[in-house]
Every structure is written in C-alpha cells, then in structure tokens.
Amino acid sequence: MSGDGAPGAPGVAGGGGRRRLEAIQSGVDAFTTGILAGLELPAEAACLELGAGAGSVAYWLAGHRPGGRVTAVDIDTAHLDPGRAPNLEVVRADITDPSFEPGRFDLVHARFVLCHLADRDALVERAAGWLRPGGVLMVTDPYQLPAGTSPFPVVRRLMAAYHAVCSRAGTDLAWARSLPSLLARAGLSGVEFAGHPACMGNGEKDRWRTLIEQAAPGLLAAGLDPADLDAFRAHLADPGFIDIPQVTLAAWARRAG
Ligand SMILES: C[S@@+](CC[C@H](N)C(=O)[O-])C[C@H]1O[C@@H](n2cnc3c(N)ncnc32)[C@H](O)[C@@H]1O
Fold it and tell me: Which atom, in ligand 1's list, is nearest to the CA of 100?
C-alpha cells in the first residue's frame, strides 16, 4: 500500500463540485486502475461505471479496452464528457431507482458512491445481478480510522467533525469493511480485497487540503473551532505533518461463469 487516497465526503451523496471530484481522482485512481488492470475480462468487455463522477475510471476503462464498451452512469452527468471515447456512453440515472435496469455487464464498478446511499447493502446485491456470467463486481469505499487515534490533536477534532457531518448526511464511513462479506452473500465467488491509505499532509502528496476546504462550512456548522481549521492549514506547511485519516478499501468478486 502506498500513500495517497481519498475520502468519503461530508454532506454529499455524490456531487460536491469538480474540484472535489478531481481531488478524489488524483488520490485514488492509480490504486483503482492497478486493480482493474489485473482483472481477467474479455477484450470486448461491457463495463458499467456507477456514480462515474468526473469520469476518470470510465475514461480509463474505455481506453484500456477499445474493443469493449463503457456505460458511465451518474445522477449528475455535468462532469462527464460523452465525446471522450467512441466506446463510451453517458447515462443520467439514479442508481437507487428500482426502475434502473442497466442491462448485463462483464464489469460493474462503483467507487465512493454506495457508502453515501441508504440502501447500500441492497445495491450490492442488485449490482451483482447486473453481471453477466463470469463478470466482476468491484466496489470501493473509504474506511475512516478512529479520529481519536490520530497523533495530531487538531486532526482528532477535524476528523471527528468530518465523521459527524458524514453520519448526519447518511454516509457510513465504516461500511467498506463489510464489502467482502456482502459480495460473498450476493452469490459471488473468489472474493478479493485491497486497501490504500489516504495521505493527509506530507507536502505535495497531501490529498486532503481541497477536501477539507470544501467541507469547511459543514465542519464549522458541526462545531469545529475555526482555529482548528487555521491550525490544519498551518500543519500542511510542516514536513513533519503526515497522517492517515482513512483507508480506501476495494473488494471484488466474480459471478460464476
Ligand atoms: C464521491 S463521488 C465519486 C465519483 C467517482 N466514482 C470517483 O470515485 O471518482 C460520488 C458520485 O456518485 C454520484 N451519485 C450519488 N448518488 C447517486 C445515485 N443515487 N445515482 C447515481 N449516481 C449517484 C454523484 O453524483 C457523484 O458523481
């Protein structure tokens, strides 16, 4: 495991703007595509990207398998470019809508989406049903380490507020731990999983400045002292400030062929 990552986001069952989506992508794309590149899938694989965001994974899939096709679904498609690849389709839809029936795919992938949604367990089961025989379901979400264990008192308070805002918005930052079991219970086999530590601080490797700045109004509303935000900003200039607030967990498994 190397040292970047990306979080779940407070108060947002998804959106939050392009800068936030790009911050997420820059933190975790290499981890995601490293796993995707190792999956055995047909050259003409049909791929479904759920909650595609700003599209980096959908674009990567389309480029990685030019003979396949990629369906990128999001409830807000403002940050997706359907002209990015000839084998890419962009679909605006709510994946929690019972009438959402996208078809059958060789790969179904969802990153930092399901932990925000109330019916997340059921969605894993539904998503398993969107697989063709032999297809792979991969789900990635953040697991927040206990805020109180940070070596930095300011991070303890910051991440406690972050957790509170997420919980109030219905985001479960511990749910990722249940992914391997949920995939197995959905009837899939060969369950695998991997983790990727998020990097807060450590100079240029920091992945949290943008996320915390965007979350700041919510964190302050949750009772965070403005002085803690200032202290966090000051910490970022300190080369000795390096922390791991979350671990991104990915789990994947295959439908019997
Ligand atoms: C935190 S972003 C993650 C984006 C992308 N998967 C990534 O990891 O870079 C969550 C995305 O899920 C989308 N989303 C949230 N709820 C959704 C729903 N019910 N149906 C479809 N998309 C949804 C949001 O619009 C947003 O683009």
Answer: 20
